[in-house]
Design a protein that fits this description.
The chain is mainly beta. It has 1 helix and 9 strands. The longest helix is centred in the first third of the chain and has 12 residues.
Length: about 110
């Protein structure tokens, strides 16, 4: 993902367009009979569920495979993927928090 530094031109629009091309169709290499699911929340007492952009990354190839916004209750679900291993990255579009990574995730049978 792009890095940001003072004085550098923001490349996020071009980068996102390239990412959409990658994620536009499902790659059979990553398809299977499993699902990856979880929740996005802001830590607190109690945790507050939030909707965030989630990105599913194949750990073996380091390629982004799918992306979606988690629902209003914070849940996300990637269907029809292979067993894994996966990494899931949740991005905070408000800019208040850094991205959070869940690593070494394995799919559940569908």
């Amino acid at each position: 993902l792009p890095t940001y530094a003072p004085g550098r031109r923001d490349m996020s629009v071009r980068h996102d367009r390239q990412l959409n091309l990658t994620l536009g169709s499902y790659d059979k290499r990553f398809s299977g009979m499993f699902l990856v699911r979880g929740t996005t929340a802001v830590a607190g007492q109690p945790d507050v569920p939030v909707s965030r952009l989630t990105l599913l990354i194949d750990k073996l190839t380091k390629l982004p495979v799918r992306k979606k916004m988690s629902s209003a209750d914070g849940t996300y679900r990637f269907d029809c993927v292979r067993y894994g291993p996966w990494a899931v990255v949740a991005f905070d579009h408000t800019g208040e928090y850094n991205a959070v990574i869940a690593d070494n995730i394995y799919g559940e049978p569908m």
